[in-house]
From TrEMBL:
SUPFAM superfamilies: DR1885-like metal-binding protein. It comes from Neisseria elongata subsp. glycolytica ATCC 29315. This is Copper chaperone PCu(A)C. Residues 1-19 form the signal peptide. It comes from the Bacteria. Keywords: Signal. InterPro entries: LpqE-like (IPR007410), Lxx211020-like (IPR058248), PCuAC_sf (IPR036182).
Amino acid sequence: MKKVFALVAAAAACQAAFAAGVEAQSPWARETVSGMKNGGVFMELKNDTAKDIVLVGGSSPAAKSVEIHEHVHAEIKDPKTGQKAMGMKMQAVPGGLKVAKGESVTLKPGSYHVMLMGLKQPLKPGAKFPVTLKFKGAPDQTVQVEVRANAGSPGAHSDMDHGHGGHGH
């Protein structure tokens, strides 16, 4: 009877440990074309812990560095004409991306995303590669990212093919 109780207790502890954590769901990256130096990774982060956590960065053998970025509506200067206009630009998220306890945050195109800086080779549809997500308030987590085709949508490459104005990248 003691063995049965010990097994039940161990199973419950494992289930509790699994349930109380940060889960990266369905990580994927958009394919890149030759010459693109950066790419984006998207997913849903679910925080089942009892405290807020912060996604602060990461690492991957697919890129020189991994940062957390966001698209923001801002004044942008046209490099050809010098004129300024409102538009979307990408920037690093200062301090990282907070995921409140019990909440989820979706990383998606045109919003928050994991930025692969200095890709070592183009990302091809069907390929898979690891990304280790680094958190403040939770253990690092390595996920397998699958590359998806752009499906020929207009501007499919443009949101990842940018100069990262103001970043120095």
